[in-house]
Specification:
By secondary structure, the protein is an all-alpha fold. The protein is built from 3 helices and no strands.
Length: 114
C-alpha cells in the first residue's frame, strides 16, 4: 500500500514541476501569454476534474457489475463509457482547430506557434 502512495506522490510532484516549468516558459513570452494561460487553466482544470469523476464512476460501475457476475451489464457500461469519451472528447479536439481559424489582430499573440 505504501508503494502505491509513493508512486502517486511522485506523479504529483512531477506534475507540479511541469506546471512550474510551463509558467517559467510562458513568463518569457510576456504578460499576455501568462494571462492567456491563467484563463485557459480554469477550463482545463474543470475538464480534468470532470474526466476524473466520470472515469471513477464508470470504473466503479463496471467493477460492481463484474463482481455481481453481470458481464452483459459490464459490457454495456464499457460502450457507454466509450460514447461518453467521444461526446466529451470531440468538442475538446475540434474546438481549438475551429478557434484557431478565427481572425485576430497580429499583436495578440506573443508566441509564433499559436
Amino acid at each position: 500500500m505504501l508503494r502505491l502512495a509513493a508512486l502517486t506522490t511522485l506523479v504529483l510532484v512531477i506534475q507540479t514541476l511541469v506546471g512550474v516549468a510551463e509558467t517559467w516558459f510562458f513568463g518569457f513570452l510576456g504578460t499576455e501569454a501568462l494571462a492567456g494561460v491563467a484563463l485557459a487553466f480554469r477550463a482545463q482544470l474543470i475538464q480534468m476534474m470532470a474526466n476524473g469523476g466520470i472515469g471513477g464512476g464508470v470504473t466503479s460501475a463496471i467493477t460492481r457489475a463484474l463482481g455481481a457476475k453481470r458481464r452483459e451489464n459490464a459490457e454495456a457500461l464499457i460502450w457507454h463509457a466509450v460514447i461518453l469519451a467521444g461526446a466529451f472528447g470531440l468538442p475538446n479536439t475540434t474546438g481549438p482547430v475551429i478557434l484557431h481559424q478565427c481572425p485576430r489582430p497580429p499583436h495578440t499573440s506573443a508566441c509564433p506557434f499559436i
